Amino acid sequence: MPIGVMTQLHDDKVVKALQTDAKRIRENTAALLDCMSEFVVLIREDFTVEYMNKSAASIWKGILGQPCYQVFMGRRHACTDDCPLRAVMEGSWEGRLFQKQIRDRHVEISAVPFKGYKNEHLALLVMRDDTQRKELEERLKRLNEFMSQEIRS
């Protein structure tokens, strides 16, 4: 066999091995994200929802490819200076937690910059549903107010 053919066969094996490794990494990453109870969402620079894990997809159906400001915040235009994602995209966000109400859910969100496999700038959001805790806080607040009124009367 000529040397050029042997080199091509070797290169094909290397490419095939790299493709197999990349597929395994993708599948393992998807499995890891899908077993999380937290909502994991990737947002593109144009604020479009790029990816959601199973937990997020079970709550927010049909939002892939939609603008985050529309599906999460009910806005017609991109959020302005109150948007942590904008700061994440610009690299000025330090990964702090923030709280938002998204539709009927209270969520605690951690947002960090994320590089896509094509080197695109994304924001990775990990959201924890905090709705039950918020509802309990509200009940306790009402109970305290009621008890205060009862004590005064």
Automatic annotation (TrEMBL):
Coiled coil residues, start to end: none
Family matches, as InterPro entries: PAS, PAS-like_dom_sf
Signal peptide: none
CDD domains associated with the record: PAS
Protein name: PAS domain-containing protein
Species of provenance: Dissulfuribacter thermophilus
